[in-house]
Amino acid sequence: MPEVTERARDLVGRLLHGHGVVARITEVEAYGGIEDPASHAFVRTPRSEIMYGPPWRLYVYRIHGHHAANVVTGPTEQAAAVLIRAGEIVEGIEVARQRRGPVADHALARGPGNFTKALGITSLDLGTDLLEPVPVYLGERVDRPTLVAGPRVGVRLNADAPWRFWAEDDPTVSAYRRHPRA
C-alpha cells in the first residue's frame, strides 16, 4: 500500500481547524501524485505545483463552483496528497450553519465542497502550513474509528483503486458516485 494511503487513513479521526470552525475528519481520498493518473499532479502544471513541495501544506482548488481542500503528504517531488471529503463539525457549529445555510447538522461538512464551505476554506488558504496554528491547521486525533476502504468518487482514471477511506457507519460520510466514464 503506498505511503499516501497510510497518511490518508491516519487523517480520519483527526481535527481540522478552519476560520472559527473545527471538524473531525470522517472521510478522505488518497492521490498518489506522479504515479497516479487520477491525481492533479500526474502531469505537473502551475495549478499542481504546490503538491511537489513540502508536506503538510494545504492544496486548495475550485471544482464545480466549490473549493476542495487537500493535505499534501509528500514526499517532496512525489506530489501525493489527500482530499478531505467529509467531517463532523465539533466546534463552531453556528458559524458553519451561517456559511452552509439550512441543512442538517450531519450534512454541514458532507462532501468536499461542503466541508470547505463550512470551515471557510478558500483559495486564499492555498499553501497554508497545516502544522502552524493559524488560520487553517491540523489538530489532534480525537478518535480511531473503524475504517472502510473503497473506490474514489468521481474519477475517470484509476477509478477502482480502493483509496477512499471513511469512518464506518458515520452519518457525515458522503455518498459514493462513480464517474460515468470510469
Summed up:
This protein is an alpha+beta fold. It has helices at 3-11, 93-100, 112-119; strands spanning 14-18, 21-31, 58-63, 66-72, 81-91, 136-141, 147-150, 164-167. The model has no long low-confidence stretch (mean pLDDT 94).
Characterise this structure.
- With 182 residues, this protein is α+β, with helices and mostly antiparallel strands.
- It has a single domain, classed as Methylpurine-DNA glycosylase (MPG) (3-methyladenine DNA Glycosylase, Chain A).
- Helix content is 14%, strand content 30%.
- The chain has 3 helices and 8 strands.
- It has helices at residues 3-11, 93-100, 112-119; strands at residues 14-18, 21-31, 58-63, 66-72, 81-91, 136-141, 147-150, 164-167.
- Strands 1, 2, 3, 4, 5, 6, 7 and 8 form an 8-stranded antiparallel beta sheet that branches.
- Helix 2 (93-100) packs across helix 3 (112-119).
- The radius of gyration is 15 Å and the shape is globular.
- The two termini are 22 Å apart.
- The model has no long low-confidence stretch (mean pLDDT 94).
